[in-house]
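Morning. Coffee machine broken again, so started the prediction first thing and wrote up yesterday's gels while waiting. Chain of 94 residues, entered below exactly as on the submission form.
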Amino acid sequence: MHRMNRFSVEKIRRQYLLHYIRHLGTRREVLETDVASLDWLRQRTLEKIGQDIAECRAYDMLLKDVADHQIAYDLDDGVAVNHAKFTPVVAAIR
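Came back before lunch.
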């Protein structure tokens, strides 16, 4: 958190999440080239990849919204206050 700035969320989205979505898309394309001859394990993998892509795209929309706001935070406010600013895209603090 000490190295983050208001552009970090967009950087995370662009450099990690979007690359991962493209990676999953490539894996799906490879499996879809010969759908008729897929065994049950590869068929299941193909379905799982489709679910993962859908989940990542939904998260991408949330992350994009947070990135567009370019949220600024102050380390002196504490973890709970700064964490609350990123509520839609981070897990709850326990």
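The chain has a mean pLDDT of 89. Going to sketch it on the whiteboard this afternoon.
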